[in-house]
Amino acid sequence: MHTKQQSGFTLVELAVVVFLVGLLASLGLSALNAQLASSRISDTKKKQEIIKDALISYLGRNKRLPCPAIDNMGAENRIAATVLPPSHTYFPMVCKGNFGIIPYATLGLAKSVALDGWENFFSYAVSSQWTLTYSATIPTLSNEFVSAATMAFNVGIPGTFTVNDRLPAPSYATSPLSGNAAVFIVSHGKNGFGALTSKNTPNVPPGNTTDEFANVPNQTTWAAPSAFFQRAYTDNDTHPNGAFDDIVLFLNLNDFINPLMKDGALKSAESQWAEQTVNIGNAVTNYMLMDISCAPPTLSQFNNTILANNSIPSIDPWGHTLDYVKCIDQLNSGVPTPTLPSSLSAQFINKSTNATITYNTLCTTPAQLAFAITVVTDSTTTPVTRLPVLTNFTVAKIYGANASYLNTKCP
Q1: What pLDDT, in 10s, does the model give residues 38-71?
Q2: 252 band by pLDDT with thresholds 50, 70 and 90
Q3: Same domain, residue pair 252 and 292
Q4: Share above pLDDT 70 across residues of the chain, in percent, rounded to a whole number
């Protein structure tokens, strides 16, 4: 009698099966991890765009950007406003620092939007001038007080941040991507080095010789670094400047202003300058017509009466300080070409350089003989001239990045 031999897998066959199953599982897990990483990166970039849109809308409504937050509550952090006795001068709120985390609550965003694909907060830096609206004075770090006119946001003023890339080997030198970024938004990527977690605890920082270190807020000073970095992804820790998985979005002046101009929320610098010159002309005209001799204002009267009493900024939209010279003593009825004094050296001082500008510099060309006053800014750009209609007395001339002549008649 023959017994039936039972078939089965040998140990070698079982080993091959186990190997193939493990290989397939490993390949599937790798594909799943790659898909998950890609999804997190995509989610992070989408949230950066949402934050960008929220910042643009905030600027349109408030004419400034919010300060960074410094904790997971998401409110912008400002130093309280003060009133300094005995003059009772008001000093507005300034940012505690310019590099922290996204102020999602101030922007009206959900906390989830401020968290990247790895559930860490986006870090956010903003140029200090973009966080102030025009006001009288603000405190400096040394507790001195300076005019806020040149330190407040305006549509022609660029940002102050430098953002660098790195050249490839063997150089690895910095390569500038922007020298005037207004805002820098960064996810600290998969490694999360230096990020603030949703539980309000900081992750381990990157090495202080790496480029990622520049993109991490200093939680003592909250000050921005001398330069930020945006580099291609690498997980190579042997790179001279370290691995880099930060996901960066930086915004320049036009990234904010162009959409707001399109929506009508902000006017262009050129439009604001045109309005400013008209307002100065009207204020000077009213002043002269109220004066019995139809005399243009003095330098002191221009600053303290013309500008201050009419809420006219003392800078142009590009941030250049307005200066002033009186070219004639008065306008009289029936005198088509007013007589000019021989010198005006004592009547005009450039506020930026303290240099004296003489009559011969500003008032000698034939077209200028009817000018009653001249207002200039310390702009380095060449003014674009629109000549006046000389059938009227021209009572003001204003220079900036553009130029405009304003006409009126005196009785």
Answers
A1: 899 999 999 999 999 999 999 999 989 999 999 9
A2: very high
A3: no
A4: 64
Q: Could you say which of 211, 237, 261 is where a domain stops?
A: 261
Helix orientation angle between 11-62 and 253-263, rounded to the nearest 10 degrees:
60
DSSP H or E segment with residue 99: strand 99-101
Question: How far apart are alpha carbons 321 and 380 in whole angstroms?
Answer: 12
Q: How far is CA 252 from CA 144, 150, 180, 223, 256, in A?
A: 30, 19, 7, 19, 7
Q: Among 261, 288, 304, where does a domain finish?
A: 261
Pair 357, 372: CB distance under 8 Å: no
Number of domains in the chain: 2
Distance (Å, whole) CA 67 – CA 305: 33
Answer yes or no: do 294 and 387 share one domain. yes
Residue 92 belongs to what domain range? 32-261
What is the model's pTM? 0.72
- Of the two residues 59 and 403, the one the predictor is more confident about is 59
